[in-house]
Amino acid sequence: MLDVLVVGAGPTGLVHALWLHSQGVKVRIIDRTGAPGTTSRAMAVQARTLELYRQLGLTDEVVSAGFRTPAMNIWARGKHRARIAVQDIGRGISPYPFILVYPQDFHEKTLVAKLRSLGIEVERNTELLSLEDKGEHVASRVRRADGTEETIHARYLAACDGASSTVRKQLGIGFEGGTYRHVFYVADVELSGLDNAGEAHIALNGEDFVVVLPYSSDGKARFIGTVRDERAEHAENLTFDDVGHEAMASVGIHVDKVNWFSHYRVHHRVADRFRQGRVFLMGDAGHVHSPAGGQGMNTGILDAINLAWKLAAVIHGQAPDALLDTYATERQAFARELVKTTDRIFSLVTADGGFANLMRSYGVPLIAGVIYTIGSARETLFKMVSQTGLAYKDSPLSEGRAGDVEGGDRLPWVNVDGQDNFEPLPVIGWQVHVYGTATPGVRAWCLRNGVTLRQFSWADEHGKAGLKENAVYLLRPDTWVALADPEGSADTLDAYFTSRS
């Protein structure tokens, strides 16, 4: 029998299928569309995503194909208010301290090609009609473009089928939240007339604004803005000529060509539950929010990775079913917090009225400039946007503290004389890190249980990163810290797994 049926071949579904296959799980992936998307849509690939892509051998390809944003410029009423250098904003935090722009259409093609190289084809023009959880497996009825139908039997179903998820609706799972009243537009354009066109720009002009995100060195960029007047009431007929051009004109932008234009209303919603029996919701099927910070696609990818290693463990008989409940516990809590955070930012950016205009014109540039000059604030901002600060401290899988590192934290990245503690394992799995010397008991425990032991010669850089000498750090297959033991004891390792079956 098939292990997992993945419904939806956007980045979330594709990454989920890749991670499952890499762990020996039998997987099929279907999508009702005839081909990958051909428009840019999501743009940013965050540092935490790039760190995890190393385990699939994808990072170098994505980084080399993407566009590193050197700086963010803030304009207000035609005047340049701030320039924030971001090319190394996360230096010392991640091996990928930059903001990478890699349009989703290119991104999806890369993931599809990786799957194909492993012998897995996305089954296109294949629509999910219905599903039934039969207790021991899920039976899914699908229809292909030629009208033929098939019932696919799989032990689990992963719903990655977007905000209008068929799976979520058929299961009757609530999707509480709301919709912002503003109509937004996105456009992929070729532009001229803008100084430093290879850098990102936010142009604020009263109630009109435009975000400019370049994704090549030859003038191609993504525009994001709002439609605020009576034209928003008839958004179905909008074209690029209908949107506000005041902010663009205020900074000298001339649009030479529009390659793609779309408009939408932004929702903020989180599903009532991320798991129902043998079915799991991921990505936009489980949570949608404003585009502030470029979090959406990356959050879906981290959903996919979080669930994939847990499914593999249960399918291979290495863990009880209860492990799968921690997917919902960890990812739903993060989704709810993310929606709150992006909602606050979004509300500030889109608020109406004189005071809001004043804040956008003068307050936002001032605050942004101050944050950039304060190291701790800049570090906090990078960790939040890049998702390198994401932790699962309240998870039942998280335990202990050693130094400044707690169970549930992302392991601090440290590179000492070229020795990178994020170097991926040949096979995705658990690992133990010791910065200093592991005891004979720990070495024997790792050998006996088939867990990779990695020892790093103690250096001052480890202490500065918050690690404790000779402590044991047990890492989950997705490289978050499961257990931090300051005593470096094999008994503690044994007790961790025994208590969780």
Automatic annotation (TrEMBL):
What's the cofactor?
A: FAD
Q: Which InterPro entries match?
A: FAD-bd, FAD/NAD-bd_sf, RIFMO-like
Where does the record place the FAD-binding domain? 2-341
Sorted keywords for this record are: FAD, Flavoprotein
Q: Does the keyword Transmembrane apply?
A: no
Q: What is this protein called?
A: 2-polyprenyl-6-methoxyphenol hydroxylase-like FAD-dependent oxidoreductase
One Pfam family from the record: FAD_binding_3
Is Flavoprotein given among the entry's keywords?
A: yes
Matching entries from Gene3D superfamilies are given as:
3.30.70.2450, FAD/NAD(P)-binding domain
Signal peptide as annotated in the record? none
Q: Which domain of life is it from?
A: Bacteria
